[in-house]
Fold these 2 entries.
Entry 1:
Amino acid sequence: MTPIVTSAVLHFGEMGSRWGFNRTVGQMLALIVLNDEPLAAQEIADALNISRGNTSMGLKELQSWRLIKQQHVPGERKEFFVPAGSIWVLANRVFEERRKREIDPTLTLLRDLMLDDPAHENDAQVQHKLNEIHDLLESVTAWSQELQHLGPEKLNTLMKLGSGVGRILDLKDRVLPTKGESQS
Amino acid sequence: MTPIVTSAVLHFGEMGSRWGFNRTVGQMLALIVLNDEPLAAQEIADALNISRGNTSMGLKELQSWRLIKQQHVPGERKEFFVPAGSIWVLANRVFEERRKREIDPTLTLLRDLMLDDPAHENDAQVQHKLNEIHDLLESVTAWSQELQHLGPEKLNTLMKLGSGVGRILDLKDRVLPTKGESQS
DNA sequence: ATAAACTTTCAGAAACTTCTGAAACTTTAT
DNA sequence: ATAAAGTTTCAGAAGTTTCTGAAAGTTTAT
């Protein structure tokens, strides 16, 4: 590994835990993404100086996140690993996987609690707040799925638009006035 | 605590660790948000059955995330705590704080690495990939800040628009054709 | 100045997560 | 059938985080 690759790998290891996986899994991901050649498990273990067992678990986890895929190289006995897609695809997968882990269970619980009968007077009030949280999380979920379906090019257009989004919204209110609600 | 509040508090405790803070901090946040009355530290410790010391640390952390604020009740000696704002504000704070912890350090590192001289031939190649990651993260950052500045009402309009966003983008390409790039 | 009411800090205990390496397993070639 | 090449699993060691509770600190009232 060149010094640049080493720095990146170490950093992604440290950040890994903040992004939902552990240090070695983060390092492995960085290494696989930055290498042009497919990598074998043993090469990863050697490069990162971690045990072969840990490597195996890490590869399994990265596959469960659908961030890497196996690639069979003809004439070779062992399996090789490559990124599961472009940077854009990988970022999306991380997003989606985290949504599943961080938001979906809460949405389920909130829906259940909203169906419960209020046992005390201020429960109705509590349920109102839970409802508010639910709606917000649901909007975020719907919205992030929407962005994923847009694909990278359109998203890029949208992002380059930046603060123009507000203007576009106004535009839309004028062009399609019957559809949205009539606020501000 | 009524059964509904108890369920919500326990759940937010479990999710807490996925959202960037620990179990008790998650529970404390849920409790404070769902209570209409300001709560004192001792009341929180009693309700959640945790030590007074842990409560103190948790309150400090929630304040560092700017999710709760102290509120002095006249005639009372102790401090009381209330949410720092509406659900919308709180969600935004969590988002922003996580951006600071999860994305900003990586952006800094990537910028530094891109300035390094390529030491080996394929470093140029690696730097290209790092650049791609950098641009993606930067777009996400800029975009999320944009959404925050829109405020809840406009964001809501945008969210209700849902799959209409694609259509609006096309619309914009037709109405303001000189500005964006001319893709697909 | 003293005491009462309250908060913060911090050392170490408890709980949890991650990592290793050896043993068990699978696949392929001969 | 056997051996060689490779992978997976898992018990326990190492490391990390979280929590408690007692001691130190702060503020306010008298």
Entry 2:
Amino acid sequence: MSAEINATAASLLGFLHDGPMTGWDLVARAEQTIGPFWSLTKSQVYRELAYMADHGLVTPGETGRRDAKPYTVTDAGRAAFAEWAARGPGEGTIRLPLLLFVTLGRHLQPGLLRSVLSEQRARQAELLKQYLGLRQVLGEREDTDPHVLATLEYGITVARATVRWIDRLPPEVGARETPHTRR
Amino acid sequence: MSAEINATAASLLGFLHDGPMTGWDLVARAEQTIGPFWSLTKSQVYRELAYMADHGLVTPGETGRRDAKPYTVTDAGRAAFAEWAARGPGEGTIRLPLLLFVTLGRHLQPGLLRSVLSEQRARQAELLKQYLGLRQVLGEREDTDPHVLATLEYGITVARATVRWIDRLPPEVGARETPHTRR
DNA sequence: TCATGCATGTAAGAGGTTACATGATTCG
DNA sequence: CGAATCATGTAACCTCTTACATGCATGA
């Protein structure tokens, strides 16, 4: 049994399966391939890399230009990754501030929820446009990993669903003092 | 300017706008009305209640049966809530382990991703069924807050979208060693 | 030479989870 | 009387964010 790792470390190990990378590379890679669904900061990355190096899951290579320190995944690292994967993705904690906002809409200043929703709609529509553009580009390349494309597809699906959800919200949502509030 | 509060405290304050509640009540209420999109634990609830009582945003009432201590929101509390609301919901950090899993699918044991996806599909379908039943029940009652209903509607929309997304995934997703992996 | 991008890290604090500990009340 | 539910809280730990600090390399 190898060292236990968390999902953050596992994501780094996963990326390292494609070859040695520096912390900086990893941040960029995560941002590009799964940014919208898996946030991580450089602080976390350097911490997890240090932890993993300590436990022999990765080995630092020679420092290249500009102090770049590439890490390579070891056999133990691959084993730890496989163990993490075998545990499955779990349910994960979901915290969507927008939904909290909507739920509490009854107690917000008149108009606030409405403006927040229209802003969100614009944001999601913009995101959708970007995703569609990206799909176009990636879809044309032959070396695109279908898994990455699938993630993108999820983004498209959800962005689209969110926009439609906002459009179909009843007019009472965002209105002040819905009947049942009175007591 | 009143004390700064975080989204967790704000959610509690929001719920308290409907009348005094104990920590226990708040946990239950959150679970019921927004559970799937806004997780919180009792540890957090008691911590935030203590903090807010300290800062005069809520006042504990007399201990009722079984040590139940109901909290009432104060004017300062309402002000703090309004300030939080004025800041808007922000973008929020999203971390969906399933999507990370899919992204890294190329490096998973053959079949693992496939089984994870089919399990997720079942889970989402089950969730969808529950949501639809709940909508039926809540929709018939006249005192249902349309905002709560709207949140539920989002759950339905996304669950449905997720199921369809899984159903439409190309066969390569979950398969071992897609062409571009070879180097 | 100066701004930008590459590159690594530390420190402090906020937020969130899990396990532990305790006790009252109700219902069967 | 015993199990389930109600009810509060603490302690330890993990994770994540933000701000700070440093320095090299490249290109305009």
